[in-house]
Amino acid sequence: MDTPPHTAARGGRTAVIRGLGASLPPEVVSNEEVIARGGLDTTDEWVRSRTGIRRRRRAAPGVSTGELAVAAASAALRSAPGHRPDLLLLATTTPDRRCPATAPEVAHRLGLGPIPAFDLSAVCSGFLYGLITAAALVRAGVAAAPLVVAAEKYSTIIDPSDRDTAALFGDGAGAVLLTAGDPDGPGAVRQVDWGSDGGAADLIAIASGGARAPYPAPAPAPSGPRFTTLAAGVAAARESPPPRVERYFRMHGRQVYAQAVLRMTESARSVLGATGWPGSEVEVFVGHQANQRILDAVADRLALREAARFGNIGEVGNTAGASIPLVLAEIAEAGAARPGARTLLTAFGGGLTWASVTLNWPDTTGHTLIPHPRPPAD
């Protein structure tokens, strides 16, 4: 790697995971349904063989990214009784609005008071970027109990007729609560590594909607204000959306595959070396659930044992930034890892961005971690 990994315990304060939670919408959508809805020129067998995905979750139109975030955060807080967050960080590519950030509203709905809350955008690396940021804030004494949430509603940015992306993504959210604690105890964040390469930003992108390529402005009204209410403006935007090719998520699959395997492998090796763990001694490995072939390639290169490899991509698809905490919550709920187990996390996403973390598996037994929110009543 170009830069060395960083210890998460510098200065005598170590961030420890105290709570885990996740949220999955109840609707299950099969490969066959995705293919039929989009008129895709592919088959269930092809999707499974290339990605490992059989089905995914879809949030209903009445459920926002913020609502998924609230449900996951609530589950994390229930799994850590006695700890109250003093900062909230939301990693997402699908905020409820372009402005303002979604995090303050999530904090408000959780009843957390006027704590600092902000969004972070690192696409599929978002959760680990958030975890690394929160751990640094704990180490510096800036935050005592940061709550890191990753929530995604990719069904709002995926073109259902795009064969390259329509069958990949699902909706969901995950969360962790951190505090300072024992550097050798369960949940302790050990070593971290992160990086980016903006020279390859176009490999994973939504082309329009930002300052570089804003959506076309609507024609002005003959006289007077264009819209008298916010609702009227939203309705007009829905009637005249930007061109399909510009407003949807696009990805160059072959190049992304090569970069994902390279970056995650290098980053993971860096933190394993800094922690002093050979790959064969890792007990829990969770990579970003992008594609089963990517996960297998990374795990094989790191010489990880089959028993250490955990994932859920077959059942929930690629949930982008939320994928790692979703798997963590499932492992915890199933009691599939012992407290203190040697754990390796690694991710890769648009930007390009990547990150890896080593930690001791947390002790969050005996709690319901994965609620299933439903659309609000009309």
Distinctive features:
single chain, 378 residues, alpha+beta, Peroxisomal Thiolase, Chain A, domain 1, five-stranded mixed beta sheet
Description:
Mean pLDDT is 89; it is low at 374-378. A five-stranded mixed β-sheet has the order 1-9-14-13-12, with helices on both faces. Helix 3 (65-78) crosses helix 4 (103-109). The chain is built from eleven helices and 14 strands. It has one domain (6-200, 250-360): 3-Layer(aba) Sandwich (Peroxisomal Thiolase, Chain A, domain 1), CATH 3.40.47.10. The chain is 30% helix and 22% strand. The radius of gyration is 20 Å and the shape is globular. The protein is an alpha+beta fold. Strand 13 (342-349) and strand 14 (353-360) form a beta hairpin.
Could you give a short description of this structure?
This protein has 378 residues and is α+β, with helices and mostly antiparallel strands. It has a single domain, classed as Thiolase/Chalcone synthase (Peroxisomal Thiolase, Chain A, domain 1), CATH 3.40.47.10. Helices cover 30% and strands 22% of the residues.
